Amino acid sequence: MPATPAPRPGRAWFAGVRASGVVEHADVRADPTALATPGWWALVGTFEGRVDAWRFADVVTGPDAAGPAGDASAWIGPPADAWRSSLDRDAYVTAVERVRAHVREGDVYQANLCRVLAAPLAGRGGEPDAGALAARLAAGNPAPYAGGVHVPAGGADPGCWVVTASPELYLRLAGDELTSAPIKGTAVTPDGLTAKDRAENVMITDLVRNDLQRVCRPGTVRVTHLLDVEEHPGLVHLVSTVAGTLEHDVRTAPDLVARVLDATYPPGSVSGAPKSSALRLIDALETVPRGPYCGLVGWVRVGEDGEVRAELAVAIRTFWWADGVLRFGTGAGITWHSDPGREWAETELKAARLVGLASGPADAGQPVGG
């Protein structure tokens, strides 16, 4: 057997898991068979489709993996006034109206329209401390699918610097049960949720149900929760849950990539319905790639016996750093009943707390990226 390569720098952290030392990297959309190797893999995917995976040598789970990923006081973020948006308010409002025009024409029912905030940020002696930002977010904005992956680039490995405070489950695989929990509908309080929010959630829940039916046994896909209200720091969401039992021939980790991702990616809640039409509209209206934002971030564990477990979040409320720039995406779902000004305000609401934390506690909660 070939010798196991010496681990190189890199770490990843999610709820109940801490991993360090990278021993393998793969672009798993290009080569799904790479995930056949037993071990714990961290995955980060871009909205545009590429999914990178890193297998880690040292993995700690359970109580020993509790606690922050770094020292929050060590984070030095960009000034609040350094952030710039890929779409300013006027451009975003105009784009909302264009989506509504496509809804009127019957091209789409709903499309998720996003913008990317960016601020210069130089790392001290290399790259910024991703763990320190994760610790700051954990203290100020705890999230059920919080985590991060930080792998310095090297050789053919492009590396990764992603920190997420995602509240949204993209896919969970446990045994042969596949679960997704799309979020659509956002307000400051439950009283602020509207009929438009509920209709939008039902649209996307139906889309996710159809996606899962492509890889699940007939008759097993069901909506287990519809329009649940979840409270998060500073806002509330409508969340529905869809589950199904995988087909008998979908069993391996490569199947998760080659078949399950092909059936469900990118996530329906951050694309639109019909998905193919929404993706064409997004490509026409958004001015920069989303990158990891609205993609996926999470982990896959492959057992020696071939058993696969996975928990992948939709990479919203997510920061990524590259080429001296820190970025954060924010967006809103657009339907015929969308009010352009309210949709812009929703993007501000989703960004303000997180970007405030990344910029420093004195700026928390301030509108950004106008």
Task: Provide the fold topology.
Blueprint: E1 8-14, E2 17-27, E3 39-45, E4 51-61, E5 84-85, H1 89-105, E6 110-120, H2 130-140, E7 145-151, E8 160-166, E9 169-174, E10 177-181, E11 183-187, H3 195-213, E12 222-232, E13 235-245, H4 253-264, E14 272-273, H5 275-285, E15 296-302, E16 308-314, E17 318-322, E18 325-334, H6 340-359
Antiparallel strand pairs: 1-2, 1-7, 2-4, 3-4, 3-15, 5-6, 6-14, 6-18, 7-8, 8-17, 9-10, 9-16, 10-13, 11-13, 12-13, 15-16, 17-18
Helix pairs in contact: 1-6, 2-6
Write a brief structural summary:
With 370 residues, this protein is of the alpha+beta class.
Structural class by secondary-structure content = alpha+beta
Low-confidence spans: pLDDT under 50, at least 5 residues?
361-370
Span between termini:
57 Å
Approximate helicity band = 10-25%
Task: Give a short account of the largest sheet.
Answer: 18 strands, antiparallel
The shape is globular
Strand % is: 35-45%
Q: Under the CATH scheme, which architecture would be assigned?
A: 4-Layer Sandwich
Structural domain tally? 1
Helices and strands, in order, run as EEEEEHEHEEEEEHEEHEHEEEEH
CATH topology: Anthranilate synthase
- At the fourth level of CATH, the homologous superfamily is Anthranilate synthase
Q: Compute the number of strand runs.
A: 18
Rg (CA only): 20 Å
Q: Specify the CATH class.
A: Alpha Beta
